[in-house]
Amino acid sequence: MKYNIALLKGDGIGPEIVDGAVAVLEKIGEKFGHSFDFNSYLIGGCAIDKTGLPLPKETVDGCLESDSVLLGAVGGIKWDSLPGDIRPEKALLGIRSALGLYTNLRPAKLYPALKDASPLRSDIVQKGFDLLIVRELTGGIYFGERGYREGKFGREAFDTEAYSTIEIERIGRAAFNAAMKRNKVLTSIDKANVLETSRLWRSVMHSLSDEFPQVKYSDMLVDNAAMQLVRNPSQFDVVVTSNMFGDILSDEASQITGSIGMLASASLGDGKRGMYEPIHGSAPDIAGQNKANPIATILSAAMMLDYSFDLHDESECIENAVRKALENGFRTADLLGVGRDGAISCSDMTKKIIEFI
Ligand code: IPM
Ligand code: MG
């Protein structure tokens, strides 16, 4: 089969890590007899520099014409003082929304080889963990009404969170379905003791749980969830939550796996086309130095094969190759910690993973 993939390399380390994932996909194509066609489009800061806009129309059109999208990262110091509307991050929200990608899957699991890299105490790490965060991606406070106005104490800024029943129901359904394919345990995370949106969220989740009696469902408040993630992460299987809570908790979940450089993500809508990206940012401090960890992006490519193309063996093959590279002791700098040497480069980590394919 032939697949068309749109590449949105973006800024900072984006180009390096996407190049790594492309090399891995090419190797998979060779091994399994598929052909991948790649077309690159501008997004984020590099798009602002070349066109004045963070998300040019050709980029959206290119993604809509592709079978799937692989994204690196956007943003950097250079564009940090631009107004909210033309910041690189706006492009990320724009493309998620334009492609209708309301479900964001962020798996966080501990590779046994990385136990030492996790900041958690050894008795906690010993139990291992393998959880999936299902984050709502096109609603909530990220997309609500915002602006400036005159308030009680003078000029003030505001952002608002709104969630409709339909938006909650479709992300809830995605989470229940994901739980059915895993260990059938679902935790919905909210702040229903304070927020009205969370109270609606909770009531919709409860109605859905009647439809999925095999899934063991429970609610958890977000502050407690932040604590439980470091106290006992093995209690979680699938977690479903709002856009902002999911953003925050997924960074926390990534760190306990050893490094934020490990976490892949899939953003999905109603069809097969998805956008796949590492959860980390553009890391401007190490950009262009061939130091970044390409694993999160390589695993994102594996998720693309799995979810968008139904190439399950091929996807597993990539995951196994990553596991073997780690088991054989290969580490990028983020996985070693400060002051420890022996780190390999982004391109060498890619080569090692390819050797194991
Ligand atoms: C993420 C990122 C983005 C988000 C930023 C860069 C807009 O943090 O994908 O988690 O908040 O969604
Ligand atoms: Mg984030």
Kindly summarize this structure in a few lines:
The chain is of the alpha/beta class and 357 residues long. 42% of the residues lie in helices and 19% in strands.
Helix and strand layout, with pairings?
Blueprint: E1 2-10, H1 14-32, E2 35-40, H2 45-51, H3 57-65, E3 68-73, H4 88-98, E4 103-109, H5 122-126, E5 130-136, E6 146-151, E7 154-159, H6 165-181, E8 185-190, H7 196-211, E9 216-221, H8 222-231, E10 238-241, H9 243-256, E11 266-268, E12 274-276, H10 295-307, H11 312-327, H12 333-336, H13 346-355
Parallel strand pairs: 1-2, 1-3, 3-12, 5-10, 8-9, 8-10
Antiparallel strand pairs: 4-5, 4-11, 6-7, 11-12
Helix pairs in contact: 1-10, 1-13, 6-7, 8-9, 10-11, 11-13
Characterise the protein shown here.
The chain has 357 residues and is an alpha/beta fold. It folds into 2 domains: 1-101 and 280-357, Isopropylmalate Dehydrogenase; 119-256, Isopropylmalate Dehydrogenase, CATH 3.40.718. 42% of the residues lie in helices and 19% in strands. The protein contains 13 helices and 12 strands. The chain has helices at residues 14-32, 45-51, 57-65, 88-98, 122-126, 165-181, 196-211, 222-231, 243-256, 295-307, 312-327, 333-336, 346-355, and strands spanning 2-10, 35-40, 68-73, 103-109, 130-136, 146-151, 154-159, 185-190, 216-221, 238-241, 266-268, 274-276. Strands 2-1-3-12-11-4-5-10-8-9 form a 10-stranded mixed beta sheet, sandwiched between helices. Strand 11 (266-268) and strand 12 form a beta hairpin. The mean pLDDT is 96. The structure holds 3-isopropylmalic acid and magnesium ion (MG). Residues 89, 92, 247, 279, 281 line the site of 3-isopropylmalic acid.
